[in-house]
Specification:
Blueprint (H helix, E strand, L loop, with lengths): L1 E10 L2 E7 L3 E6 L6 H13 L18 E10 L2 E10 L5 E4 L2 E2 L2 H4 L5 E4 L5 H4 L2 H15 L3 H23 L4 H47 L5 E6 L16 H14 L1 H7 L10 E6 L2 E2 H4 L2 H20 L9 E5 L7 H13 L2 E6 L11 E7 L2 E4 L2
Parallel strand pairs: 3-13, 3-14, 8-12, 12-13
Antiparallel strand pairs: 1-2, 1-4, 4-5, 5-6, 6-7, 9-10, 10-11, 14-15
Helix pairs in contact: 4-6, 5-6, 5-8, 6-7, 6-10
Length: 382
């Protein structure tokens, strides 16, 4: 899989940009703040409909405009496909695949990418939401139907929490009884969508855990690492080992937990049961990485997670090829051992897009097409 062409209109710092990428390694070089990461972000966004830098779309639109457009032509096997996103302020975005309007589920992961960036340190040291996001992004890339599963689940949690807050503020017995009756409908949806999402996450962990261990050994020889699911919303299930591995049993388990913690939800006015409360445990040796890892070990773990995702995705469909590997300003942060390990993977990828403040940050063994980035401009280098 290769990005052949990228066109931006009013995206971030670019009024207009037109870039033709080469197979293999492409390096975008320029001082900090000139817009290198904006290019990497655009490629990632057209793949996942998410930015690796911000949670909302509004910052992606160039200041003073109400719309940004990202167009990408890429090769997938023997086919060339064009993707277009119109990012609209105050209204729904418009998605097209080869000129035809599509829904998000049909758009997402047409182009597959893996992005490794400085922000990935939050996967180790950050909040549980950062680790859940990583898991869900890989899950959607592996099986795009989970994009709608996640969207449905998030909608149910939001609506159900709003209802719980209204119940907490209700005084009349009849009004409260009516609200509680409506709550049972949301309970059923929470259990159903939550079980589907939880099943997907557990299935993914089963596939990726060995790859994480292998990748960590590759970037930090002689050391071991692991990844496990922490079902935080269940009061008597401390680890994934105790969770069933089929959707129906997971749905029944969620129903039981909802009933058990009903009074707590009424008192707090918030949904406390479901996979939106869960976490991912990352370990180095026998110790939790979040609490005990050094700065270098955190980089190794973050890199191992991304490399594991890359290895998983490149084995899904031989006819499609590798995902595009995007390395956003990370070589300068890595020591020689980690640089070498990352460079080895980059050399084997069908296409890699790298950003760097200076060309010397990129390992010399990576023969690359170079682009020089200046404010608002991208030009092919020597």
């Amino acid at each position: 899989m290769q990005v052949l062409h990228l066109e931006l209109t009013n995206f971030r710092s670019y009024e207009a940009a037109d870039i033709t990428f080469a197979p293999g390694v492409n390096v975008l070089v320029g001082p900090n703040g000139v817009g290198k990461t904006n290019i990497a972000e655009a490629v990632g966004y057209v793949s996942t409909l998410n930015s690796h830098r911000v949670a909302a779309d509004l910052p992606l639109i160039r200041q003073g405009n109400d719309q940004a457009i990202v167009r990408s032509t890429f090769s997938r096997g023997q086919r060339e496909i064009q993707l277009e996103i119109a990012i609209n302020q105050g209204r729904a975005n418009r998605l097209q695949v080869s000129g035809s309007p599509v829904r998000a589920t049909d758009f997402i992961s047409q182009l597959q990418t893996v992005v490794f960036a400085p922000e990935d340190l939050s996967l180790v040291k950050g909040d549980p939401s950062d680790r859940r996001k990583f898991l869900d992004e890989v899950l959607v890339a592996r099986a795009p139907r989970y994009h709608s599963v996640k969207a449905d689940y998030d909608r149910v949690v939001k609506q159900r929490t709003t209802l719980l807050r209204s119940i907490a503020g209700t005084r009349g017995a009849s009004s409260r009884a009516g609200a509680e009756s409506t709550l049972s409908v949301w309970d059923d949806q929470l259990a159903a969508h939550g079980a589907s999402l939880l099943f997907g996450r557990l299935s993914l962990l089963n596939e990726i855990s060995g790859l994480v261990s292998q990748a960590y050994e590759h970037v930090a020889p002689g050391k071991s690492a692991g990844i496990a699911y922490l079902p935080r919303s269940f009061s008597d299930i401390p680890s994934e080992d105790s969770l069933p591995r089929n959707r129906q049993a997971l749905e029944e388990l969620l129903h039981k937990e909802i009933a058990l913690r009903r009074s707590e939800e009424f008192a707090r006015g918030v949904t406390v049961v479901g996979p939106h409360r869960d976490d991912v445990l990352l370990t180095i040796g026998e110790l939790p990485a979040k609490a005990y890892a050094s700065h270098g070990e955190c980089w190794s773990m973050a890199l191992a997670l991304r490399l594991a995702a890359f290895e998983l995705m490149r084995t899904l469909d031989d006819s499609v090829g590798d995902p595009v590997l995007i390395l956003d300003d990370v070589f300068a942060e890595l020591d020689s051992t980690r640089r070498k390990a990352l460079a080895q993977v980059a050399m084997t990828a069908e296409q890699t897009i790298i950003t760097a403040a200076v060309a010397e940050d990129v390992p010399a063994e990576l023969a690359a097409q170079q682009f020089v980035v200046t404010p608002g401009q991208v030009a092919r280098g020597n």
